[in-house]
Every structure is written in structure tokens, then in C-alpha cells.
């Protein structure tokens, strides 16, 4: 997801909190930077401050609507009056949250928009004896509970969502980490090694040389 907010401390605080929810988060501080990132990255949710400098948040929202696609917009603003909220929704925002707000509410709204942006998926992901419950953040293999760290859980979820298709390391970096992760890092390989060890035998995750990883 992308956060576009010019109050840097607020933007960075939101990002840190959402990363704690196992979300991959990028941050920009003006509308021009937001449009640039939106042009090169595929995001599920945009948390958009309406009063952005350089390019106003309204213009960013219009650009998102004109581009089409699954991206969902949560607009943030200090204007709490009904006409202001209505105007934001008429621009094409999917949701509207006024400042100050409770972080728990922001998280709930982001997750709700993320579900709407993604293709329909079963509440519980199951394949090859593995059962992953995103809501409860629980994983079982053949009935045995498996305790996973956040990134391990995110990797496994992406592989299960692929339904047996190969997922590239680049795709895993994009969906589970964020733009600050070095694309040449061995982070994915190391995290997968830990995940494989925790899932146990027989080996579950298959490496397709030069392509990526899959759960057949």
C-alpha cells in the first residue's frame, strides 16, 4: 500500500504501525511523488491526505479514478463537515477518515479496502495439508500448529494464494516487504529457508530454478 501524507511524523507513524500488521507500505510526502509511485508500482490501497502540497490530493484521487483498476483510496482530512466528506467521496474515494483518528479504525478500514481490491479469496487458505487463517493469523500443517514470524506468514500466504502457480522472488518482495528492501538481497531466500524448516517434512515449498517458488 501507499501512504501519501505531508505531515512526515504522522505518515511515518502510520507506516510503522501498518508494517506491524504485516503490510508492505511505501510513503510519500506530496502529490507529485504519489503520482510518480502510482505510475510504476501496483498498490492495493492508497491512504491519501486530501491537502497534499505540489499536487493536491483531489487531483491524485481523480488520476486514480481515471486510470481505473483495483486500487482503493482511503482519504484522510482534517475537514470533518459533511459537505467535505461528501465532496471527497464524489471525487472517487472509496472511504473517508477525518483527523484525528484512532489507529485501530484506520487499520480496520485499510484491511476492508484491501479485501475489496484483491480478487475474492477464501477466508481460510488451504493446500497440500497446510491451513492458513488470515483473520486469526494461524497456520496448521496436517493438524499441527506452526508458529510463524510476520514475514514468514506473509510469504506462505502469497504462495498459497497463487494456487500452485510459481511466484517470483520479485513478486514476494513487492507483496510482503516494501520499496526500501534491496531487490538484490537474499531476504526472500533466507525467510523461505526458515519457513521451510518450521513447516517440516516432507518438503512443501518447491524452488523453480530461475523462476521462483510454488506449493504444488
Task: Explain the overall architecture.
- The protein is an alpha/beta fold and 216 residues long.
- 42% of the residues lie in helices and 19% in strands.
- The protein has two domains: 2-117, Response regulator (Rossmann fold, 3-Layer(aba) Sandwich), CATH 3.40.50.2300; 125-214, Winged helix-like DNA-binding domain superfamily/Winged helix DNA-binding domain (Arc Repressor Mutant, subunit A, Orthogonal Bundle), CATH 1.10.10.
- A hairpin with a 4-residue loop joins strand 7 and strand 8 (138-141).
- Helix 2 (31-40) packs parallel to helix 3 and helix 6 (150-161) crosses helix 8 (187-199).
- The radius of gyration is 19 Å and the shape is elongated.
- The model has no long low-confidence stretch (mean pLDDT 88).
CA-based shape = elongated
Domain count:
2
Q: Write the CATH architecture name of the largest domain.
A: 3-Layer(aba) Sandwich
Can you tell me the CATH class of the largest domain?
A: Alpha Beta
Total helices: the number is 8
Relative helix content: 40-55%
Low-confidence stretches: none
Summarize model confidence as the mean pLDDT. Answer: 88
Give the structural class.
Answer: alpha/beta
Q: Give helix and strand order, one letter per element, not per position.
A: EHEHEHEHEHEEEEHHHEE
Q: According to CATH, what is the topology of the largest domain?
A: Rossmann fold
Spatial order of the strands in the main sheet?
2-1-3-4-5
Number of distinct beta strands? 11
- CATH homology group of the largest domain: Response regulator
Q: Which value, in Å, is the CA radius of gyration?
A: 19 Å
Report the sheet with the most strands, covering strand number, pairing sense and barrel closure.
5 strands, parallel
Beta-strand content bin: 15-25%
Distance between the termini: 28 Å
Amino acid at each position: 500500500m501507499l501512504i501519501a501524507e505531508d505531515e512526515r511524523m504522522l505518515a511515518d507513524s502510520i507506516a510503522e504501525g501498518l508494517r506491524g500488521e504485516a503490510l508492505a507500505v511505501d510513503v510519500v510526502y506530496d502529490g507529485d511523488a504519489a503520482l510518480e509511485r502510482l505510475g510504476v508500482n501496483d498498490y492495493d490501497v492508497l491512504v491519501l491526505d486530501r491537502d497534499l502540497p505540489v499536487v493536491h490530493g483531489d487531483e491524485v484521487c481523480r488520476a486514480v479514478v481515471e486510470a481505473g483498476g483495483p486500487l482503493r483510496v482511503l482519504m484522510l482530512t482534517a475537514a470533518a463537515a459533511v459537505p467535505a466528506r461528501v465532496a471527497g467521496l464524489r471525487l472517487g474515494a472509496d472511504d473517508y477518515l477525518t483527523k484525528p483518528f484512532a489507529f485501530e479504525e484506520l487499520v480496520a478500514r485499510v484491511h476492508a479496502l484491501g479485501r475489496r481490491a484483491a480478487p475474492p479469496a477464501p477466508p481460510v487458505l488451504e493446500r497440500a495439508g497446510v491451513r492458513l487463517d488470515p483473520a486469526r493469523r494461524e497456520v496448521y500443517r496436517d493438524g499441527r500448529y506452526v508458529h510463524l514470524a510476520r514475514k514468514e506468514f506473509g510469504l506462505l500466504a502469497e504462495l498459497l494464494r497463487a494456487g500452485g502457480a510459481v511466484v517470483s522472488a520479485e513478486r514476494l518482495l513487492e507483496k510482503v516487504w516494501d520499496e526500501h528492501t534491496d531487490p538484490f538481497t537474499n531476504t526472500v531466500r533466507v525467510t523461505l529457508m526458515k519457513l521451510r524448516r518450521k513447516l517440516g517434512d516432507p518438503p512443501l515449498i518447491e524452488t523453480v530454478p530461475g523462476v521462483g517458488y510454488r506449493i504444488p
